[in-house]
């Protein structure tokens, strides 16, 4: 069967506006680090970098980077870890390794597109678990119990959630695990924002409780290293074994330089994540004040995790056209909700520099004043 992927709406938008605007309040990561920053914060010497030999690495990753990921995220079980080219490759590998045409896959709605489009393109049948604004974008577990059934092959979630910033409690995580186990389904948990939470500690890896759980992580969000293109997948050995044949035809392995920098960043992750989390926490309060001062022009659910909010813009007829105008006139990147199937919303990122956020909100208010319905 020929695989024909539909347009990736978010990536299309970012291609048009990410590099050609001056102020970014649409992206979903924290402020990026430079190599100079990494060397200073993590104590990486010139000698350590000079010692990198550009030989091939192993298919599932070198032993040192796998060990670092296992110790921080997988309870020390190295055999359950594979490094990948970002979480995007991990998602592609998981779905191509485990799904077949006709399989039933339960996904959140809204959801980052790549977390469901690959399954859809493979010929799977999607069932959607709605995340509703009036419920704070938190899944209704009674509804989840009705959507997840004996025919469900895979359940795909991402908490903290992109784009809304909602998350679940440990009890709700356990309920999702119970539902997956009852159905005998794989539970795929995208943990891109797992270490960016505000009111509660990060959720544990679901693989510690369920043998058919699979999680994916990345250095692109909480670590501020999107250009490193390093991600990982934590899964049972038999699942990772299926990855080998796919990677032989795709990416083969990662660069040893990427693995070195990634390992050092993960080993001392708190030095990178701690300051960025606190910056984002303060930025979240700035966004809350901006929403409160909007006099009903903006409604939102205050994010519990991640660095994106999903506010609803009131009184603007075409939010997508508004975001295009904002990019062209105000030189501001803001992601329209059509990229997530929600036409009246926008994804607003608050993980960057505080001065950038403040300038972006000022220009956003100026743009809204031009477009607001009278």
What does this structure look like?
With 374 residues, the protein is α/β, with parallel strands linked by helices. The protein folds into 2 domains: 9-35 and 271-368, Alpha-Beta Complex (Aspartate Aminotransferase, domain 1); 52-268, Type I PLP-dependent aspartate aminotransferase-like (Major domain) (Aspartate Aminotransferase, domain 2, 3-Layer(aba) Sandwich), CATH 3.40.640.10. 41% of the residues lie in helices and 14% in strands. The protein has 13 helices and 14 strands. It has helices at 9-17, 35-42, 46-50, 63-73, 86-98, 114-121, 141-147, 170-183, 237-248, 256-267, 269-292, 319-330, 354-371; strands at 23-24, 81-84, 104-109, 125-130, 152-158, 186-190, 213-218, 231-234, 298-299, 308-309, 312-313, 332-333, 335-336, 346-349. A 7-stranded mixed sheet has the order 2-8-7-6-5-3-4. A 3-stranded antiparallel sheet has the order 10-14-13. A two-stranded parallel ribbon has the order 1-12. The mean pLDDT is 95.
